[in-house]
Input
Amino acid sequence: MALTDKHLALVGFMGAGKTTLGAEVARRIGRRFVDLDELVESNAERSIVELFAEGESRFRELEARAAEESLTWPQPLVVALGGGALADERTRGLLRERAVTVWLDRPLADCWERARGSDRPLARDKAEFERLYHERRSAYADVADATAHDADDAVLAAAGVHVERGAIHRLGNLVPGDGSAAALVSDPHVAGIHGMDAQLALGPRLAQTHELPHGEEAKTLHALDRLWQSLRIDRTGTIVALGGGCTTDAAGFAAATYLRGIAWTPVPTSLVAQVDAAIGGKTAVDLPQGKNLVGAFHWPDRTVIDPALLETLSDRQRREGLAEVVKTGLLAGEPLWELPDGELVRRCAAFKSAVCLRDPHDDGERKMLNLGHTFAHALETAAGYEGLTHGRAVALGLKAALKLSGRESREVDDLLQPKPVHVDRELAWQAMQRDKKVVRGELRLVLLGTRGPEWDVSVPSADVRSALDELIAG
Ligand SMILES: NC(=O)c1ccc[n+]([C@@H]2O[C@H](COP(=O)([O-])OP(=O)(O)OC[C@H]3O[C@@H](n4cnc5c(N)ncnc54)[C@H](O)[C@@H]3O)[C@@H](O)[C@H]2O)c1
Ligand SMILES: [Zn+2]
Output
């Protein structure tokens, strides 16, 4: 079952806050929220207190039936499961098969604070509450695919994204597939720095290694052809893509196509890849006619993000990634760029995960992730992809998008210091009009409205042209 078709099941003790968090996560990833206790009550037309009065076993029976009803629902849901629901074997089986199960692990004191004084039958006696809290921990640990402390963690789990400092040393366990064979794909530079750690961690699962060329060269049909021909794993195998966005885009496309599609796990190593490229299942290679023109949607089974890997990035590569971080922060309406590395990556990755889960195939709001990018791509095309990095082009594009949104661009100016580029004005304008975002001659842009991002906003050509002109020097 594809990860994006699975339910997100929240388990945890009474008073852990599953209902509040579940409703928030459901809103963020665009799904319906089902609280199992409420479903039991509405099915039985009785309150939990009344049902318990008839004996706990009667309640457990109705609970198991409600669990089955929600976990076999055809559309993926967010389901909060009451503390004792896991005792049922069939419920545990459905969770394993049809859900990503997340344990909302909260300290005993917090749970007791929230649950005491409620009318919950099992929250009347503190000593009994405490005993049950400890007793059930192993049941949660057994079924859970991930542990969450807040809504961002739960969103990440729904998208299959695992963020952990030092995760590279646990790859053998973190790459899904029950110990099946793994092909490790990276670029020569990243292989030299982090390749050995990944190989050691994959241990006996490592079937082969493959090096793609540097940078965008990896995203060519020639490089793909070499990768396809070198692969020695069967359909149960996994491609592990260790590297920046070029590596994850190309290796992900190989995974989407080899043997009509096999599993893959990106292990992004650049800031661009950790906050953006390795999330959301878009994979692609370039054609001479343009970037990302051949590709596929192929959601990874898991994305393993180790923020410690960023420590070996050069300042220049970091700045590249910072442009996408600023983009994400502007879209989220929060200064995410001010956070320390680990938290910055976790929050940005959660933002992108939520947008992509709401719109996995880019039919609508996922377009917001293109903020500043129509301008950026036009400048990159006019520069012939030389002498102008994507990060610098995005910084300029964000400035133009903010201007057209009627906003100041102080953050972009301070953090990214975009300098106008020397490119041919006419070429840039032509590229802008050839962009995928042109509908019947009108340019559709992503702008930041007063209530957040808006996409497909049609903007008069003359305004777009003058905003573009300001980005060009001379
Ligand atoms: N699929 C998507 O949704 C998506 C989103 C954004 C960008 N992208 C793609 O991502 C690509 C750009 O990604 P990128 O900037 O990561 O490029 P990249 O893969 O070329 O990496 C940039 C450079 O950083 C080096 N590097 C990576 N990790 C390192 C580390 N930990 N230490 C030292 N050096 C390291 C690489 O060797 C390379 O030289 C573009 O092709 C873009 O189209 C895809
Ligand atoms: Zn970008």
Summary: The two ends are 55 Å apart (CA to CA). The pocket of nicotinamide-adenine-dinucleotide (ligand 1) is lined by residues 187, 189-190, 193, 214-216, 219, 243-247, 249, 269-270, 272-273, 276-277, 280, 282, 291-292, 309, 312-313, 317, 320 (CB under 6 Å). The longest strand covers residues 290-297.
